[in-house]
Amino acid sequence: ATPVEIVLLALSFSASGSKGMSAQQANSSMLGELSLLPTQLVIPSDNVNILKIQGTSSGRIFMCGKDGCLYELIYQSHDTWFSRKCRKLNHSASRLGMFVPGFLKFTSSDPVLDLVVDDQRHIMYTLSDRSAVCVYDLGHDGKTLTRVHESDDIARQASQLCPRGHNWEPKSFRIVSLSVVERQGPVHLVAVTSAGVRLYISTFTRLTNAQASNDTALKKLRPTGLVVCHVRLPPPESAVTLAPELRTELSGLSPYASPLGATASAAGRS
Fold first, then answer.
1. What residues does 47 pair with on adjacent strands?
2. Strand order across the 61-65 sheet
3. What number is the average pLDDT over the span 177-192?
4. Pairing of strands 146-151, 175-180
5. Could you tell me which of 44, 143, 182, 242 has the fewest CB atoms within 10 Å of its CB?
């Protein structure tokens, strides 16, 4: 994506030596040839800088722009009477604003910097430059989109859980990344600040103890808001300075490797 146009390309992977292999063996092979295939799906960007593109397991493509809007790239095999085979849908604009040309629209002072999708729960999150987090419900099947809630008081919620040991002033508070928690439970998102603070967030504003301990009940619930339910501060500088050196020659591990593997969920990292 460029400020001029957005081009949709196709990827094709063919496993090397796939002749004689079963379909399961060919799909699990890590060696092969990756091809980039051009398509005829091209749309103008309307002078909007696309900061991140995120796809879902169902094939939907979402984009966050510097203008502070959330876009979706709609594509299909051919044109119809009422829609083109490739178009850009603005989920942040009103219905009247969708008919205004791009050069007449005002640029938002709070661009959307990050975009993450939870394919397991069908939930999407966006992060703005002012550390505002917005949650979208993609529906039980992941085919719809509803803007549920936008929270710009994450720092206030965190300060109530951890009033001491950290400066929660808005000027010094900044969220730099969002990570989805894949493990089933009431915690769905981890936000990391520029100071290394990890904020564990739930999309359930009201949850009983019986629901929190029942995975089947949790799967049926849809997001209703954003609630900070746990705060983990970074270790103090003295602990980092006085920490003993890692002796990798005894364990055979890299200093940055996890003994449990690199697939640990965000909620399980210490």
1. none
2. 50-55, 61-65, 70-75, 86-90
3. 93
4. unpaired
5. 242
| DSSP label at residue 37 | E
Global pTM reads 0.76
Regarding beta strands 70-75 and 86-90, do their DSSP bridges make them parallel or antiparallel, or are they unpaired? antiparallel
For the record, the structure tokens of 160 come out as 């109530």
Which phi and psi (to 5°) does residue 249 adopt? -70, -20
For residues 130-145, b (16+ Cβ closer than 10 Å) or e, as one string? ebbbbbbbbeeebeeb
pLDDT tens for 191-242 read 999 999 999 999 998 876 767 777 777 788 899 999 999 999 988 765 555 5
Q: How far is residue 29's CA from residue 144's CA, in Å, rounded to a whole number?
A: 34
Tokens of 131: 């550390």
